[in-house]
Amino acid sequence: MNTTEHGGTNGTGFSGAVGLVLARPARLLGIEPFFMEFIAGIEERLAERGLSVLLHVVATQEAEIAAYRRWADRGLVDTVVVVNRTVDDKRLPVLRELGLPAVLVGAGGDAADTGDGGGPAMPVIRTDDAGPVREALAHLLDLGHRRIARVSGPANLLHTRARTAALVEGCREVGVEPVVVEGDYSDEAGARLTKALLRRPDPPTAILYDNDVMAVAGLGAAKEMGVPVPERLSLIAWDDSTLCRLASPPLTTMSVEVHQYGVLVAESVLELLDGVPVAERWSPTARCVPRGSTARCAVPSTTA
Q: Does 142 score more than 80 pLDDT?
């Protein structure tokens, strides 16, 4: 993985690099396993063709756009992988303006896949975010939970909105009103928001988190407040990891084959670079893996 910006084309008209910008706090990369495993999958497949990943970590989407402009000006990358897609995503029209080929990662098959509506659609690795949420919700409902909360990622992300919408709709179908609070994937947010939820007059009996880091921190916060898991509170994390498996109790998770996800992204990148039609691909679907952090609800249904 190349994390510096230097050089240009290698004399063949190609740089030999695929760009990936992560607009998120750099400190999260050290504790959140998802992106390291994702990048490993991309690099494994690209290495077979002598290509590498140029990774750049920035704080904001504006800084990400500045990186694209710099890369295009210097010829540092042949294409980019765009992750964490947002509502009214400002990156896509800029990439069109720069003529920088891109593969979009995530979100379902909607109009947002084509960017700003100008020019041909960009290749997309699609993701079903709603189906796994419904599966996790069904697991909790089967256990008798009716006071359900969700600690989400940033609300402007397309996959956050899709997951929240699926939870709200699924709860509405059974007459349940979920509580949704917005986090930023950090352990600080996981702990703080969990404590706030548990201090409510009607605290949830189950909480779903948008990543593993927030869920593990939430587990610690519950223990600190004397709320036993899973006896009084059930927890589900999104993204399986060693963090979840080594927690006490081990966390129930929505598990994704993250490495394979990266390999699929690399396949689309290679087709784009080869100038052939890019096949439609879907990321591996998250599946609920029950562990020790979920159990039958201890709150009588008449008071839920």
A: yes
**What confidence score (pLDDT) does residue 298 get?**
86
For 132-149, give one letter per residue: b (16+ CB within 10 A) or e.
bbbbbbebbbebbbbbbb
Question: Under CATH, which architecture does the 130-255+288-303 domain have?
Answer: 3-Layer(aba) Sandwich (3.40)
Q: What is the pLDDT of residues 160-171, one digit of tens each?
A: 999 999 999 999
**What one-character-per-residue DSSP string does 157-192 give?**
BHHHHHHHHHHHHHHHHTT---EEEE--SSHHHHHH
- pLDDT tier at 117, thresholds 50, 70, 90: low
Domains 17-127+257-284 and 130-255+288-303 share a fold: yes
pLDDT, residue 31, reads 66
E-assigned strand segments in the chain: 17-23, 52-58, 79-82, 102-105, 124-126, 148-152, 179-182, 206-209, 234-238, 252-255, 281-282, 287-289
